[in-house]
Protein backbone atom coordinates (compact mmCIF):
# COMPACT_ATOMS: atom_id res chain seq x y z
CA UNK A 1 0.00 0.00 0.00
CA UNK A 2 1.17 3.49 -0.85
CA UNK A 3 2.28 5.73 1.99
CA UNK A 4 0.74 9.17 1.90
CA UNK A 5 1.52 12.45 3.62
CA UNK A 6 -1.46 14.66 2.87
CA UNK A 7 -1.76 14.43 -0.92
CA UNK A 8 1.85 13.42 -1.38
CA UNK A 9 2.07 9.85 -2.57
CA UNK A 10 5.40 8.32 -1.54
CA UNK A 11 4.75 4.87 -2.98
CA UNK A 12 5.18 1.64 -1.08
CA UNK A 13 7.65 1.63 1.80
CA UNK A 14 9.48 4.85 0.92
CA UNK A 15 13.15 5.50 1.61
CA UNK A 16 13.82 8.98 2.90
CA UNK A 17 17.06 10.91 2.84
CA UNK A 18 17.70 12.34 6.32
CA UNK A 19 18.19 16.04 6.87
CA UNK A 20 21.89 16.53 7.64
CA UNK A 21 23.53 19.85 8.34
CA UNK A 22 26.32 20.67 5.86
CA UNK A 23 25.52 17.47 3.95
CA UNK A 24 21.91 17.41 2.67
CA UNK A 25 22.36 20.40 0.37
CA UNK A 26 21.13 20.51 -3.25
CA UNK A 27 24.32 18.95 -4.77
CA UNK A 28 24.14 15.96 -2.41
CA UNK A 29 20.39 15.68 -2.77
CA UNK A 30 20.84 15.55 -6.55
CA UNK A 31 22.93 12.37 -6.39
CA UNK A 32 20.64 10.78 -3.79
CA UNK A 33 17.56 11.50 -5.86
CA UNK A 34 19.22 9.98 -8.94
CA UNK A 35 19.85 6.86 -6.92
CA UNK A 36 16.38 6.31 -5.59
CA UNK A 37 15.63 8.47 -2.54
CA UNK A 38 11.83 8.73 -2.48
CA UNK A 39 11.62 11.82 -0.33
CA UNK A 40 14.25 14.25 0.87
CA UNK A 41 14.71 17.02 3.40
CA UNK A 42 16.83 20.12 3.48
CA UNK A 43 19.39 20.61 6.23
CA UNK A 44 17.77 22.11 9.31
CA UNK A 45 17.23 25.85 8.98
CA UNK A 46 17.24 28.22 11.92
CA UNK A 47 13.96 30.07 12.46
CA UNK A 48 15.96 32.98 13.86
CA UNK A 49 18.11 33.05 10.73
CA UNK A 50 15.05 33.00 8.46
CA UNK A 51 13.43 35.86 10.32
CA UNK A 52 16.62 37.94 10.27
CA UNK A 53 16.83 37.15 6.56
CA UNK A 54 20.32 35.79 7.08
CA UNK A 55 21.85 34.86 3.73
CA UNK A 56 23.01 31.45 4.93
CA UNK A 57 19.55 30.44 6.10
CA UNK A 58 17.87 31.86 2.99
CA UNK A 59 20.17 29.91 0.71
CA UNK A 60 19.09 26.68 2.37
CA UNK A 61 15.53 27.32 1.18
CA UNK A 62 16.64 26.66 -2.41
CA UNK A 63 14.79 23.69 -3.82
CA UNK A 64 14.44 22.38 -7.36
CA UNK A 65 11.53 20.82 -9.23
CA UNK A 66 13.29 17.48 -9.77
CA UNK A 67 13.72 17.11 -6.00
CA UNK A 68 10.02 16.72 -5.27
CA UNK A 69 8.69 15.58 -2.92
CA UNK A 70 10.92 17.59 -0.62
CA UNK A 71 10.51 18.99 2.87
CA UNK A 72 12.12 22.06 4.39
CA UNK A 73 13.19 21.44 7.97
CA UNK A 74 13.08 24.28 10.49
CA UNK A 75 14.15 24.53 14.13
CA UNK A 76 13.95 27.05 16.92
CA UNK A 77 13.06 27.66 20.54
CA UNK A 78 10.53 30.47 20.27
CA UNK A 79 6.96 29.68 19.27
CA UNK A 80 6.24 32.99 17.51
CA UNK A 81 9.47 32.79 15.57
CA UNK A 82 8.71 29.22 14.55
CA UNK A 83 5.29 30.37 13.34
CA UNK A 84 6.96 33.01 11.20
CA UNK A 85 9.59 30.57 9.99
CA UNK A 86 6.79 28.19 8.99
CA UNK A 87 5.29 30.91 6.80
CA UNK A 88 8.65 31.75 5.22
CA UNK A 89 9.53 28.09 4.60
CA UNK A 90 6.09 27.37 3.12
CA UNK A 91 6.39 30.35 0.77
CA UNK A 92 9.62 28.84 -0.62
CA UNK A 93 7.44 26.16 -2.26
CA UNK A 94 8.42 22.80 -0.74
CA UNK A 95 5.95 19.91 -0.53
CA UNK A 96 5.98 19.97 3.25
CA UNK A 97 7.51 21.59 6.30
CA UNK A 98 9.32 19.50 8.90
CA UNK A 99 10.11 20.47 12.48
CA UNK A 100 13.34 19.36 14.11
CA UNK A 101 12.85 18.14 17.68
CA UNK A 102 15.85 15.83 17.54
CA UNK A 103 19.04 17.85 17.28
CA UNK A 104 21.19 17.07 20.35
CA UNK A 105 23.88 19.69 19.74
CA UNK A 106 24.60 21.91 22.72
CA UNK A 107 24.25 25.30 21.09
CA UNK A 108 20.88 24.29 19.62
CA UNK A 109 19.61 22.71 22.84
CA UNK A 110 20.71 25.62 25.03
CA UNK A 111 18.48 27.90 22.96
CA UNK A 112 15.50 25.71 23.77
CA UNK A 113 15.42 24.23 20.26
CA UNK A 114 15.84 20.76 18.72
CA UNK A 115 15.71 17.88 21.19
CA UNK A 116 15.41 20.33 24.08
CA UNK A 117 11.65 20.39 23.44
CA UNK A 118 11.54 16.73 24.53
CA UNK A 119 11.85 18.15 28.06
CA UNK A 120 8.78 20.32 27.65
CA UNK A 121 6.09 18.46 25.76
CA UNK A 122 3.44 21.14 26.41
CA UNK A 123 5.61 23.72 24.69
CA UNK A 124 6.41 21.28 21.89
CA UNK A 125 2.71 20.75 21.29
CA UNK A 126 2.03 24.51 21.22
CA UNK A 127 4.93 25.12 18.88
CA UNK A 128 3.80 22.37 16.56
CA UNK A 129 0.25 23.67 16.50
CA UNK A 130 1.55 27.15 15.62
CA UNK A 131 3.68 25.78 12.77
CA UNK A 132 0.78 23.68 11.45
CA UNK A 133 -1.62 26.63 11.50
CA UNK A 134 0.86 28.94 9.79
CA UNK A 135 1.39 26.64 6.82
CA UNK A 136 -0.88 25.57 3.98
CA UNK A 137 1.35 22.50 3.56
CA UNK A 138 1.51 19.24 5.49
CA UNK A 139 3.77 19.47 8.54
CA UNK A 140 5.90 16.55 9.69
CA UNK A 141 8.17 16.12 12.71
CA UNK A 142 11.49 14.42 13.32
CA UNK A 143 12.46 13.57 16.87
CA UNK A 144 14.18 11.08 19.17
CA UNK A 145 12.95 8.54 21.75
CA UNK A 146 13.14 11.10 24.54
CA UNK A 147 15.61 13.23 26.46
CA UNK A 148 17.35 10.38 28.28
CA UNK A 149 16.84 6.83 29.48
CA UNK A 150 14.44 7.92 32.21
CA UNK A 151 12.26 10.04 29.97
CA UNK A 152 11.54 8.14 26.79
CA UNK A 153 8.35 10.01 26.07
CA UNK A 154 8.02 9.68 22.29
CA UNK A 155 4.87 7.54 22.67
CA UNK A 156 3.06 10.47 24.25
CA UNK A 157 4.72 12.88 21.80
CA UNK A 158 3.38 10.90 18.83
CA UNK A 159 -0.21 11.01 20.08
CA UNK A 160 -0.19 14.65 21.07
CA UNK A 161 1.51 15.88 17.90
CA UNK A 162 -0.87 13.87 15.73
CA UNK A 163 -3.72 15.53 17.63
CA UNK A 164 -2.48 18.99 16.66
CA UNK A 165 -2.19 18.04 13.02
CA UNK A 166 1.22 16.66 12.05
CA UNK A 167 0.99 14.30 9.10
CA UNK A 168 4.00 12.04 9.61
CA UNK A 169 6.58 11.37 12.30
CA UNK A 170 10.17 10.21 11.93
CA UNK A 171 11.79 8.77 15.03
CA UNK A 172 15.53 8.37 15.49
CA UNK A 173 15.89 5.40 17.86
CA UNK A 174 18.17 7.16 20.32
CA UNK A 175 17.68 9.57 23.21
CA UNK A 176 19.22 13.02 23.29
CA UNK A 177 21.61 11.83 25.99
CA UNK A 178 22.92 9.14 23.65
CA UNK A 179 23.88 11.66 20.97
CA UNK A 180 25.07 9.29 18.22
CA UNK A 181 26.57 6.69 20.55
CA UNK A 182 25.46 3.12 21.22
CA UNK A 183 23.00 1.33 19.01
CA UNK A 184 19.70 2.72 17.87
CA UNK A 185 16.77 0.91 19.49
CA UNK A 186 13.63 0.80 17.39
CA UNK A 187 11.41 -1.17 19.79
CA UNK A 188 9.57 1.93 20.99
CA UNK A 189 8.98 2.88 17.38
CA UNK A 190 7.14 -0.41 16.92
CA UNK A 191 5.04 0.30 20.00
CA UNK A 192 3.95 3.58 18.47
CA UNK A 193 3.12 1.88 15.19
CA UNK A 194 0.99 -0.60 17.14
CA UNK A 195 -0.88 2.16 18.98
CA UNK A 196 -4.39 2.02 17.46
CA UNK A 197 -4.71 5.79 17.99
CA UNK A 198 -1.84 6.50 15.60
CA UNK A 199 -2.95 6.97 12.00
CA UNK A 200 -0.07 8.97 10.51
CA UNK A 201 2.92 7.32 8.82
CA UNK A 202 5.77 6.49 11.18
CA UNK A 203 9.28 6.37 9.76
CA UNK A 204 12.17 4.63 11.49
CA UNK A 205 15.61 6.20 11.58
CA UNK A 206 18.99 5.34 12.99
CA UNK A 207 21.81 3.02 11.94
CA UNK A 208 20.35 1.59 8.73
CA UNK A 209 23.44 0.94 6.64
CA UNK A 210 22.72 -2.14 4.53
CA UNK A 211 19.94 -3.72 2.48
CA UNK A 212 19.68 -6.61 4.97
CA UNK A 213 19.23 -4.32 7.91
CA UNK A 214 16.63 -2.29 6.04
CA UNK A 215 14.72 -5.46 5.13
CA UNK A 216 14.98 -7.02 8.59
CA UNK A 217 14.05 -3.88 10.46
CA UNK A 218 11.17 -3.07 8.16
CA UNK A 219 9.64 -6.44 9.11
CA UNK A 220 10.64 -6.40 12.74
CA UNK A 221 9.52 -2.89 13.56
CA UNK A 222 6.48 -2.62 11.25
CA UNK A 223 7.29 0.96 10.20
CA UNK A 224 5.94 2.74 7.10
CA UNK A 225 9.32 3.65 5.67
CA UNK A 226 12.95 4.22 6.56
CA UNK A 227 15.03 7.36 6.75
CA UNK A 228 18.71 6.96 5.95
CA UNK A 229 21.39 9.48 6.87
CA UNK A 230 25.04 8.64 7.39
CA UNK A 231 25.05 5.54 5.20
CA UNK A 232 24.21 7.73 2.20
CA UNK A 233 27.17 10.06 2.69
CA UNK A 234 29.56 9.21 -0.13
CA UNK A 235 27.32 6.25 -0.91
CA UNK A 236 24.06 7.45 -2.48
CA UNK A 237 23.73 3.99 -4.05
CA UNK A 238 22.40 2.74 -0.70
CA UNK A 239 18.88 3.72 -1.82
CA UNK A 240 18.90 1.71 -5.04
CA UNK A 241 20.59 -1.22 -3.29
CA UNK A 242 17.95 -1.36 -0.57
CA UNK A 243 15.19 -1.14 -3.17
CA UNK A 244 16.69 -3.87 -5.29
CA UNK A 245 17.02 -6.13 -2.25
CA UNK A 246 13.40 -5.50 -1.27
CA UNK A 247 12.24 -6.35 -4.76
CA UNK A 248 14.39 -9.40 -5.49
CA UNK A 249 15.92 -10.58 -2.21
CA UNK A 250 19.26 -10.32 -3.96
CA UNK A 251 22.18 -7.96 -3.70
CA UNK A 252 22.76 -5.45 -6.44
CA UNK A 253 26.46 -5.19 -7.22
CA UNK A 254 28.07 -2.09 -5.71
CA UNK A 255 29.17 0.80 -7.91
CA UNK A 256 32.19 0.34 -10.16
CA UNK A 257 35.14 2.71 -10.04
CA UNK A 258 33.83 4.53 -13.13
CA UNK A 259 30.50 5.02 -11.45
CA UNK A 260 32.05 6.24 -8.21
CA UNK A 261 34.07 8.77 -10.14
CA UNK A 262 31.15 9.84 -12.30
CA UNK A 263 28.85 10.42 -9.32
CA UNK A 264 31.58 12.13 -7.30
CA UNK A 265 32.19 14.41 -10.28
CA UNK A 266 28.50 15.15 -10.67
CA UNK A 267 28.36 16.04 -6.98
CA UNK A 268 31.39 18.30 -7.46
CA UNK A 269 29.93 20.00 -10.55
CA UNK A 270 26.61 20.59 -8.81
CA UNK A 271 28.50 22.05 -5.84
CA UNK A 272 30.27 24.51 -8.10
CA UNK A 273 27.04 25.38 -9.84
CA UNK A 274 25.14 26.03 -6.62
CA UNK A 275 27.85 27.40 -4.32
CA UNK A 276 30.22 29.04 -6.77
CA UNK A 277 33.73 27.73 -7.54
CA UNK A 278 35.52 28.71 -4.32
CA UNK A 279 33.02 27.37 -1.78
CA UNK A 280 31.99 24.56 -4.11
CA UNK A 281 35.55 23.20 -4.30
CA UNK A 282 36.18 23.77 -0.61
CA UNK A 283 33.01 22.12 0.68
CA UNK A 284 33.38 19.14 -1.64
CA UNK A 285 36.58 18.20 0.17
CA UNK A 286 34.73 16.48 2.98
CA UNK A 287 33.18 14.01 0.54
CA UNK A 288 36.12 12.48 -1.36
CA UNK A 289 37.17 10.01 1.32
CA UNK A 290 33.61 8.69 1.44
CA UNK A 291 33.19 8.20 -2.29
CA UNK A 292 36.33 6.09 -2.42
CA UNK A 293 36.10 4.42 0.98
CA UNK A 294 37.67 0.97 1.07
CA UNK A 295 39.96 1.45 -1.92
CA UNK A 296 43.49 0.35 -1.05
CA UNK A 297 46.12 3.09 -1.00
CA UNK A 298 43.68 5.83 -1.84
CA UNK A 299 45.14 8.21 0.74
CA UNK A 300 47.68 10.00 -1.50
CA UNK A 301 44.91 10.82 -3.98
CA UNK A 302 42.67 12.06 -1.21
CA UNK A 303 45.45 14.27 0.15
CA UNK A 304 45.83 15.86 -3.26
CA UNK A 305 42.09 16.21 -3.85
CA UNK A 306 41.54 18.03 -0.56
CA UNK A 307 44.43 20.42 -1.15
CA UNK A 308 43.79 21.27 -4.79
CA UNK A 309 42.14 24.65 -5.50
CA UNK A 310 41.93 24.34 -9.30
CA UNK A 311 38.95 22.55 -10.79
CA UNK A 312 40.78 21.27 -13.85
CA UNK A 313 43.49 19.78 -11.68
CA UNK A 314 40.78 18.10 -9.56
CA UNK A 315 39.32 16.56 -12.71
CA UNK A 316 42.82 15.34 -13.66
CA UNK A 317 43.33 13.70 -10.26
CA UNK A 318 39.98 11.94 -10.65
CA UNK A 319 41.15 10.67 -14.04
CA UNK A 320 44.33 9.38 -12.44
CA UNK A 321 42.17 7.55 -9.88
CA UNK A 322 40.21 5.99 -12.75
CA UNK A 323 43.43 4.76 -14.35
CA UNK A 324 45.05 3.55 -11.15
CA UNK A 325 42.02 1.50 -10.11
CA UNK A 326 40.87 0.49 -13.61
CA UNK A 327 41.39 -3.20 -12.87
CA UNK A 328 40.20 -3.07 -9.31
CA UNK A 329 36.81 -4.58 -8.55
CA UNK A 330 35.19 -1.83 -6.47
CA UNK A 331 31.75 -3.43 -6.67
CA UNK A 332 32.55 -5.64 -3.69
CA UNK A 333 33.77 -2.83 -1.45
CA UNK A 334 31.13 -2.32 1.17
CA UNK A 335 29.70 1.08 1.91
C1 LIG B 1 26.44 15.39 9.83
C2 LIG B 1 25.04 15.22 10.37
C3 LIG B 1 24.18 16.31 10.35
C4 LIG B 1 22.87 16.17 10.81
N1 LIG B 1 22.00 17.23 10.72
C5 LIG B 1 20.69 17.04 11.02
C6 LIG B 1 19.72 18.05 10.75
O1 LIG B 1 20.03 19.14 10.23
N2 LIG B 1 18.42 17.79 11.08
C7 LIG B 1 18.02 16.61 11.65
O2 LIG B 1 16.84 16.42 11.92
N3 LIG B 1 18.93 15.63 11.90
C8 LIG B 1 20.22 15.82 11.58
N4 LIG B 1 21.10 14.79 11.76
C9 LIG B 1 20.60 13.48 12.24
C10 LIG B 1 20.21 12.58 11.06
O3 LIG B 1 19.15 13.15 10.32
C11 LIG B 1 19.81 11.18 11.54
O4 LIG B 1 18.73 11.30 12.42
C12 LIG B 1 20.95 10.46 12.26
O5 LIG B 1 22.17 10.61 11.56
C13 LIG B 1 20.63 8.97 12.45
O6 LIG B 1 20.40 8.35 11.22
P1 LIG B 1 21.54 7.47 10.46
O7 LIG B 1 22.04 6.45 11.43
O8 LIG B 1 20.85 6.88 9.26
O9 LIG B 1 22.64 8.44 10.09
C14 LIG B 1 22.43 14.92 11.34
C15 LIG B 1 23.32 13.86 11.37
C16 LIG B 1 24.60 13.97 10.90
C17 LIG B 1 25.52 12.79 10.93
UniProtKB/TrEMBL annotation:
It holds the Pfam family Dus. Residues 16-303 form the DUS-like FMN-binding domain. FMN binds at residues 73, 142, 172, 229-230. Catalyzes the synthesis of 5,6-dihydrouridine (D), a modified base found in the D-loop of most tRNAs, via the reduction of the C5-C6 double bond in target uridines. It is an enzyme of class 1 (oxidoreductase). Keywords: Flavoprotein, FMN, NADP, Nucleotide-binding, Oxidoreductase, RNA-binding, tRNA processing, tRNA-binding. The keyword Flavoprotein applies. The active site is at residue 103. Belongs to the dus family. One of its GO terms (molecular function) is tRNA dihydrouridine synthase activity. Its cofactor is FMN. This is tRNA-dihydrouridine synthase. It comes from the Bacteria. Coiled coil: none annotated. Gene3D superfamilies: Aldolase class I, Putative flavin oxidoreducatase, domain 2. Its EC number is 1.3.1.-.
Amino acid sequence: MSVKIGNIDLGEFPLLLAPMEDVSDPPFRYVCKKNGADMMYTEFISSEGLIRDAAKSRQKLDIFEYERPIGIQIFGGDIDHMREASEIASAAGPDLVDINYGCPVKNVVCKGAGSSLLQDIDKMVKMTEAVVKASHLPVTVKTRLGWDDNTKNVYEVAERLQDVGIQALTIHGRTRAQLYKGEADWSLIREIKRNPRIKIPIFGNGDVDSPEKAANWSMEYEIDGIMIGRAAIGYPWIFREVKHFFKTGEHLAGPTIEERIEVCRTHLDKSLEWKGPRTGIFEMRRHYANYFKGLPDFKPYRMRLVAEPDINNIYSILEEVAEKFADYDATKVLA
